[in-house]
User: Fold this.
Amino acid sequence: MRLIRRISQIFFLLLFIFLFFQATYPFESFLPPDLFLRFSPLAAITTMLSARQIIATFIPALILLFITIFWGRFFCGWICPFGTIIDGSDRYLRRKKQKNQNSFRYRKLKFIILLIILISALFSTELVGYFDPIVLLTRTFTTTIFPIFTFLTDGILQVAMKIEWLEEPVYELYDILQGQFLPVVPHFFRNSVLYFLIFIGILSLGVITPRFWCRNLCPLGALLGIFSKYRLFQRTVDASCTQCGKCQRECKMNAIEDDFTSNNPVECIECMNCVATCPSHSIHYKFKWGFSSSKVDLTKRQFVQSVASGIVTVGLLKTGFLSRNQNGEAIRPPGALEEAEFLDRCLRCHECTRICSTTGGCLQPAGLESGLEGIWTPISVPRTGYCEYNCNLCGQVCPTGAIRKLSVAEKQQMKMGTASFDKNRCIPWYRFENCLVCEEHCPVSDKAIKFEEREVIKPTGEKVLVKFPYVREDKCVGCGICVTKCPLAGKAGIFVSTQGEIRSV
Assistant:
């Protein structure tokens, strides 16, 4: 069974990676790239609580939660790709066998985090994106792991191309990879170092105990554990047990009690390591109905404190200072819901950012542009990329509906904001020299950028005819390509704000 479990873990990790690579332009996928997000019960419950409605894409997660009632936390031990990565990391971090630490005191943390997330969701504050393992892994792959992979792969291929006898086959390989994996333009994302440090920090906790994150911090594991009290498939120990304690030492989750015959189903992830390592073959898993009396590691006082912490967290986020200047820079993807509802639904998974990076590449994780509550949500940063006029992919990969699915024609009518010229930097306005770049790249029919030709006198006294650009606000959709393509070094001579934006309802 241990071999079968490892095969299952590897299969689902490879499936996660395969689906990740499916989120690319042109988008053709027989499975949705957000499939694993749709199977996260924690993301499902909190998003539906926060949005105050049933979200159809999360039905698989509810089915998984129902199955957990009878089969336990099998998702953590057999399917979760983050758990598989942690298992692999633990094998290298803990080279010598160490006695399993009975650190029960930390297990309560995951239930405290879960309660804070659920209470926040009740008050329409979405915090699950900071703790859900599937969301966390998706965001890390998007912002750090994949850019590192493409950078290293591209560098190796560039070096190989300089070797004469490898040049032709490497060029062919490069063309194949560029059509499937390598981006035309290298990916750069805000806060990528922070996301990577968080990811490495979680893996590094394996130095303390195996699966430290899963044991003590993962709120998804806490939720699944609570639903694991009823069982159809249970661990049983025969009378032949020699009380050697090897099963307890080998248990990744420290779920086996000190009597070695009973275990805590709230913590058990059905990995069956105990079965594989038992020298007397006394441990078996059998179909048996029963209800566990094991308690959740949370006292009434800690429950009340957790609820209070959730309420205070909501208050701090909802009343945090919001800069009016920065708020104008929080340009949402086309099809994004009204801001309050968008924040209620957005998981910060950055599936949209991932697929956008394969087209115009305008989406980036937000800082404080939309306040504390909007940190890490997707916003358009036109200087680094633009919203491709004929692309509607971000709405197709959003698992929660925070970005609506729109046809290309509908998307082209969805105004993200309005461009404006900075007359202190724009070349025609500041230098009195013609520049047509912004108008040439404007994708709107009949052009949203026009020119007014006037004769002016330069500081040198020379009279010249200059085409002064201006924006037709009724035509501009805020795609930002004019900002991206502006030839000025540093800050562009044109910018986009949220003025006139149209949100999907």
